[in-house]
């Protein structure tokens, strides 16, 4: 009789240990899933900021020639203008922020700039250009986060 009692106690102890292990596993997976969701959400938020800044900086680096980069006001919207000679004509790329989106327009120099004729690059809540002491700074904001990136173009100011 004593052997059956000892065997039952061992069985109950093993079952209790297995239940504790299963409960800890479920808690670990639940907590890990929440952490993973938070990390992915943070990366998604920062993606738009980093991508918009990188896009503008890359465009400046590609079009960086003497007198080829400028900031202009067009219908109350500040735009980054990159001039590019192609053959016997000069073209301009206008990058600007309007209605929570970053836009780009490619047109022949001297053409009429139209804010509604651009190609949408990406959604970004805030995007601004600033040129100070030779540094061209881009600032992007989305929700509470804000990031900046500066380049020093050869074109000067």
Descriptive notes:
- There is one protein chain.
- The chain has a domain at about 50-150.
- The longest helix has about 60 residues, at about 1-60.
- With about 160 residues, the protein is α+β, with helices and mostly antiparallel strands.
- The protein is rod-shaped, with a radius of gyration of 29 Å.
- The strands form 2 sheets. A 5-stranded antiparallel sheet has the order 1-2-3-4-5, with helices on one face. Strands 6-7-8 form a 3-stranded antiparallel sheet, with helices on one face.
- It has one helix at about 1-60, and strands at about 70-75, 75-85, 90-100, 100-110, 120-125, 125-130, 135-140, 145-150.
- Helices cover about 40% and strands about 40% of the residues.
Overall 3D shape: rod-shaped
| Radius of gyration from CA coordinates | 29 Å
Largest sheet: 5 strands, antiparallel
Total strand segments: 8
Low-confidence stretches: none
Number of helices: 1
What percentage of the residues does DSSP assign to strands (E)? 35-45%
Structure classification? alpha+beta
What is the strand arrangement across the widest sheet?
1-2-3-4-5
> What is the CA–CA distance across the termini?
97 Å
Order of helices and strands: HEEEEEEEE
Share of helix among residues? Answer: 25-40%
What value does the average pLDDT take?
87
């Amino acid at each position: 009789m004593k052997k059956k009692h000892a065997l039952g106690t061992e069985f109950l102890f093993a079952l209790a240990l297995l239940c504790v292990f299963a409960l800890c596993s479920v808690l670990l997976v639940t907590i890990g899933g929440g952490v993973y969701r938070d990390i992915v959400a943070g990366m998604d938020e920062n993606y738009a900021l980093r991508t918009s800044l990188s896009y503008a900086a890359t465009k400046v680096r590609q079009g960086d020639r003497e007198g080829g980069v400028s900031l202009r006001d067009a219908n109350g919207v500040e735009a980054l203008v990159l001039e590019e000679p192609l053959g016997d004509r000069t073209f301009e790329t206008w990058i600007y922020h309007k209605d929570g989106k970053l836009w780009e327009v490619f047109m022949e120099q001297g053409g009429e700039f139209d804010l509604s004729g651009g190609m949408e690059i990406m959604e970004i809540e805030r995007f601004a250009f600033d040129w100070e002491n030779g540094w061209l700074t881009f600032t992007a904001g989305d929700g509470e986060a804000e990031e900046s990136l500066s380049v020093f173009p050869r074109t000067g100011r």
